[in-house]
Design brief:
The chain is mainly alpha-helical and about 180 residues long. The chain is about 65% helix and about 5% strand. The protein is built from five helices and four strands. A two-stranded antiparallel sheet has the order 1-2. The protein starts with a strand and ends in a 5-residue tail after the last helix.
Length: about 180
């Protein structure tokens, strides 16, 4: 862990950790880039006009994210200190949400698939509401394909995002326990 010398000199106990501020800034920058990319990417090239390309991109991205999440979960379970799940897992979880949002946005262009989903923000909102299991009912999947993708999101969230969040919290507890000088919290 990098430490910065306190301005008062080398007084014992007068060092502070400078890494967390940089880590948070980096993570926030990455998420900002992801969200900006989501709103700027030409997602209109996907959808009912190009179903093979759309499904290939969607499935490839979800499979890749699932594998990367599993890799990070494995690193936590094996207690690999060289891994950075505290940075990578939240990033991958955020990216997963955006992939589903992009999928919903592309799918909504097909007639009869969604009621109330017209914009990228609507798609992101629907993804988060589904993830949070709130279900306000203002946007509803009507078509069979939209319902299938919603089921896939629920299962994906239940398996991969829950496992990722559990591994992330396990790692945070381990780091806190280490810094507090205990074996567990």
């Amino acid at each position: 862990m990098r430490r910065r010398r306190h301005p008062d000199g080398d007084l014992p106990g007068k060092t502070r950790d400078v890494r967390p501020a940089w880590l948070w800034a980096g993570w926030l920058t990455a998420v900002t880039v992801l969200v900006t990319g989501y709103f700027r990417l030409p997602l209109d090239r996907l959808g009912p006009d190009r179903p093979t390309l759309s499904w290939t991109v969607f499935i490839t991205l979800l499979a890749g994210l699932a594998l990367l999440l599993l890799r990070q979960i494995r690193a936590v379970l094996l207690d690999r200190r060289d891994a950075r799940p505290g940075l990578v897992i939240p990033f991958l979880m955020s990216l997963s949400v955006l992939v589903f949002s992009g999928g919903y946005h592309a799918l909504a262009r097909a007639p009869g698939e969604f009621v109330g989903l017209e914009t990228r923000l609507d798609a992101l909102y629907f993804t988060v509401v589904t993830l949070a299991t709130v279900g306000y009912g203002d946007i509803t999947p009507q078509g069979q394909t939209a319902r299938l993708v919603t089921i896939v999101q629920i299962l994906y969230s239940f398996v991969f995002l829950t496992a990722g969040a559990t591994a992330f919290s396990r790692r945070v507890r381990g780091v806190l326990a280490h810094h507090l000088g205990r074996d567990g919290l």
